[in-house]
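Schema walk-through. Below, the input block comes first and the output block second. Nothing else is stored per chain. Lengths vary across the set, and this one has 209 residues.
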Amino acid sequence: MPQALLLEGPPGVGKQRLALWLAQALVCDAGRGTPQDSPTIAGEGCGKCQHCKLVLSLSHPDVHWLVPLELSKKGGDADKQVELVAEALGEEMTARREQPLYEPPSGLASHGIAAVRLLLRRLVLTPAMARRKVFLIGDAERLVPQTGAEAAANALLKALEEPPADTVFILTTAAPDSLLPTILSRVVRVRVARLADSVVAAFVQQSSA
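--- output ---
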């Protein structure tokens, strides 16, 4: 598993869902061993340990899921802006616990410089429970919401280039060409293909049953 991974593919194909599955595998207790001494394949989340359950409930203190935000409140200084982002992310995760089939971010939502500052603050902390920290950055193309607004993306570069040994980054995007070349050069890119129509149909039938 590389320390900086980019999952790229069509919108709605399940990139962030896959990122959460990977995060679960990275912090799972049962996945530490081999197929002979663990009920799961080595490196795969068991879904039963405390770590897995916390990831599935979007509550694990060492798995940080950052999504584009459109803040309703504007802070004054940098510290206040970081606090507002942390509060908004908490509210968004609460909403996603209640409704896992969330909608795409609004057109004005972005990963602002305050969101990256929040990430950098959490980056230097020792893992609270697991062996490592995992940062999921969904819709990473929103790091550059428009041409000339690269501050957030540039602030993330150093962390991607030299992440702490106990940290893994998983970025997702439907528009990899919108990311800075300097970010693309620091991640391992994995293409997530479009799902077959039969798989989508089966999922819809199961979800509406």
